[in-house]
Amino acid sequence: MSNCANGSCTPNRSIKCTVSNCAYHCADQQYCGLNSIQVGTHEANPTKSQCVDCESFKLKG
Ligand code: SF4
User: Fold this and answer.
1) pTM recorded for the entire structure
2) Containing domain of residue 36, as a range?
């Protein structure tokens, strides 16, 4: 798995992301370094973008 946490981030150009606090975020490039991500929701009935989450998020450590 490639990610920024181990210093070898390969940006996945199919997954744009600006969450620089995430361990998988490719620092200077606004992309995710994972091959795929899991998206989900914390709401019972999601109605707007704020209701959904990247569940692959991991706090940069
Ligand atoms: S895992 Fe999710 S939050 Fe983290 S960089 Fe990838 S898309 Fe962004």
Assistant:
1) 0.86
2) 4-54
Query: What's the token pair of residue 45?
Result: 């009935």
Report the pLDDT value the prediction gives residue 28, as an integer from 0 to 100.
87
Cβ < 6 A, ligand 1 pocket: 15, 17, 19, 22, 24-25, 32, 34, 37, 54, 56-57
**27 HSE (CA, 13 A, CB side):** 7
Q: Do the domain assignments include residue 25?
A: yes
Please check the confidence at residue 1 and state whether its pLDDT lies above 80: no
Ligand 1 centre from 15 Cα, in Å?
Answer: 8
Q: Whose CA is nearest to atom 3 of ligand 1?
A: 57
Report if residue 10 sits inside a domain. Answer: yes
